[in-house]
Amino acid sequence: MAHRLIGVEVLAVGAALLVLALLVEAWLHGRRLRSVAIRIHVNGTRGKSSVTRLIAAGLRTGGRRCFAKTTGTVPRMILPDGRDVPVYRAARPNVIEQMRIVATAAAYQAEVLVIECMAVHPELQALSELKLVRSTHGVITNVRPDHLDVMGPTEHDVALALASTVPRQGTLFTAETRHLATLQLAATDRRSQLVHVDADAVAQVTAGELAGFSYQEHAENVALALTVCGAFGVQRSVALGGMQQAQPDPGVLVEHRVDFFGRNLVFVNAMAANDPVSTELIWRAALARHPDQQRRIALFNCRLDRAARSVQLAAAYRSWPQATHVVLTGSGTYAFARAAERTGVDPLQLVDTEGAAVEELFEKLVALARDSALIVAMGNIGGIGLRLNEYFANRAEST
Asked: pTM, whole model, 2 decimals?
């Protein structure tokens, strides 16, 4: 009996110590948050990583001591001096990681933290905002039909999920138009001001200004980031100059031209844009930029754990301008192939390379290209995607 009582007492003491430790950690986290006066939480379907980097670069060039973190293709921290360093993880991604990022920003005595939302589940998005970041300013880039298996089933549900990161008594910036009323409702509920970056603001970003980037940046992303920087008193020209010089995310939209023993290949990395709306826009734009390329290869990098996305893209592809070949790679390619055939895509168009190494995939693409081809890679940047982009980049004449 005495041993049992001692055991209960030990458990009670252990539980009390655990609660005390959690309370201390919560207090320390709150203190670190308060030490970073401006906290900008960036969310949205497409462009989160790019907009996070653009805002950080603009504010940094404008004289703000800024620390940033992206989730993107690979997680990165951008230090106040502009250096780009990796985020190391001992295990799978977890939103609690944001507490470590806040602590690091505080240690660098940052005045501004620009942090990309890393949560997908609506509950975790809300937790990230209300407990972990507590932003003073929020950014929602756009609302597109992606991750419908988690945030759906409709695009409106996605808007509601993203709205969970609207700040309390702060300011929300967004370039979203179709679901603006939903975001406005959330902003009003949390007593925040909504600043809408409309089509006129986007049109002010000229083709010449976009040409100043080393990659294909979207006018909407630039306009949104410029609006945020302008709210902090940074002149447009100063902010834009900083953005154009900043290091881009590894998954940005970029073209690589490769001359492989007389075979001319144009490779477009569009794997970071994996919702059907954004992907179709990029596919059509690539075709318009390269009308001389008669052979068109649509490459879809599939993921077994993103089968719903593969089905979405396969169903959408049927209404696009058709490719000469549709190459499937990665894992779980069967989901894409089956959905494509069900919508009427010619199965002879499909070339399955599931499980192929980068070198094997490259050789297959060269064989399909014959003398010349446009290759647009879509679907997912994970897995073989990033390695394939690097493979083409390392062999490119120019980017």
From this structure: 0.86
